[in-house]
Amino acid sequence: MLDITLFIATGLSVGLVMAVCSSLKFKSKTNEAAVLMTQCFDAVESLDEGFLLFDKDRKVIVANKTVDKMLEGIGISITAGVTRNEISDAIRKWLADEGMATEPKKELDSAQVTLASSRKAQEWALPNGKVIQVLEKETKENGLISIFSDITETHQKKEELYEKSALLSNVFETIAIGICVLDSTFRVVRWNQNYMKIMDVEPNTIFKGIHMQQLLEAHYSSYDEVGDSPEEYAASAIRALQANIYTKIERKTKSGKIVEIQRSKLPDGGYICTFTDITLTKTAQLMLQESETRHREMVELSPDAILVQKDGLIIYANVSAIKLFGERDLHSLIGKQVRKFFPTIDYEQLKHHLGNADHMEPGDNISPIETRTINQFGKQTDVEVEATALLYGGRPVMQLILRDISAQKEAEEILLKAKEEAEYVSQMKGTFLANMSHELRTPLNAVIGFSEIIRNEIFGKIGHAKYIEYAADIHASGRHLLDLINDILDLSKFEAGTQQLFEEELDFTELVNECVRLTHTQQEASNVVVLNNLSGFPLLIHADAKMIKQVVINLLSNAIKFTPNGGKIFLFSEFGADGSLNFFVKDTGIGIREDDIQKALTPFVQVDSELNRKYNGTGLGLPLSKNLMELHDGSLTLESVHGEGTTVIVTLPQKRVTRSAA
Predict the structure, then answer these.
(1) Per residue in 469-515, pLDDT tens?
(2) Cα angle vertex 452, ends 451, 454, to 5°?
(3) Quick one: which of 232, 236, 265, 261 has its CA closest to 248?
(4) Quick one: CA dihedral 606, 607, 611, 616, positive or negative?
(5) Would the pTM of this model clear 0.85, i.e. be above it?
(6) Burial degree of 248 (CB within 10 A; 0-12, 13-18, 19+)
């Protein structure tokens, strides 16, 4: 007789099969026992759980198909005769091949070594994605029953529930607001750290199960404006909870915080209270209100007239606007057409300022324009009108700012009159200088001419040598004075705007050569060498020959005058990238300090490097040359290093360079 006692596993179906099989006591080879055994095996085969029955040698006696399905992928077929070790090895290899956790292998190994009379259920996560629960128990004949239950879905739900619980717990603790949960009897169930932080709750004053009344009374002294006694404060809070499904209040703490408290009933009869620190929000709102008040006062007290119009009708005006339009008060101005206060002739240029703002975005500006306002008494005022689209009571409107510019207009008229007078004086000065220059030239030419005759003894010997010397001095002084008068006359022409160009095509190279020859005597007297690199390069330009010649002579004379004995002067030219012609006069003279370069280009100013007057001159050469070049749409610039020399660059634009050849 084989007495099989099976361990009843989880699930009703397994329990029924086990109950039937455990009642079997049969004699070998009887028909009744065979029928019952067949029925028992059929029942095992129909189980949703996997079923394995091992004999005392741990060989499989009975195995249903569910086991194969659960362990699909194990690599062996679990049938009668397969040992538990073979199954264990196959599972171990399966897990190792898939890189799975080692816990099931350890459990398998321990089960092989020690078989306790009662074993706890084990949960295995298998490579095929299933999670199974394994339950094992020894039979009376030292056999072993293994029940495999597929708990994959249950496991997934448990994991999801755990994740949700963990997420909710994390949110509960990290959310920015404070939370306190009460049960239906007003006892604390749960709270987070932010509740304690926001409401200044000490850790030793709160615990699970504490009544709300006790908690509020303990912290009564932490709050402002909460009644005359802790008991009444706590009781009123509880009454508010009982009477309302939802309440919201603001509470101030002694530490300066403003807290918004919201209390709601829960479906299970409990309550949830949330606490939000709104100190910054309230402070910002207060600042905004104060800012709006200040802005309103600024608008009202602004010296500029400010009004708001909608579709051409005035709907607001400040005190300055009321005064500007000559009205009694705001009510007498509201509703009037804004255009009636402006000249009809200006309606066209004011059409956008006086129109509606429906097509504009709030904050869009219309450029300011100058016009006049006309008050109800006919008084006109010069104003500058600026318009801005705004929202006023949720409607698009146009704000006008009218700035009184009467004083500015009067100042402009005064300045214009002063300018005209200055121009007239300047013109008169130029005319006077020109007339005086002509008046001075006539007798001066006689002085120069007669002194030259006497110096050269054209009409015979004078007698004494001193007379010839004096005549030479008179002649030199006369020439110097004539040059000064010519410079002053040229400068006056520029200031009066009467200087004219007489343009022609000329060879710039030949002009420079001629200027070098004209200054030859000055070069020899100063023992200065002029190296002219333009001699082989004819350059045709379109300019006033007299003016360009005057510029080159002025530059050469300056370079010779300020270059020490034995020095050198270099003349050369080059073309710019834009086709302009650049002419250079470079000397090895005393140079000019950087701060003095602007002075050198100022009329009647002479830069003296040695702090005393060593060099004669009017200080007009460079300024006149600069004016002459600018009259040709060109330029004159200075580059200088004190103690090393100066380079003057004269530039003619490309349009004046007609032909060049190397």
Answers:
(1) 877 778 777 776 777 777 777 766 666 666 778 889 999 999 999 88
(2) 65
(3) 261
(4) negative
(5) no
(6) exposed
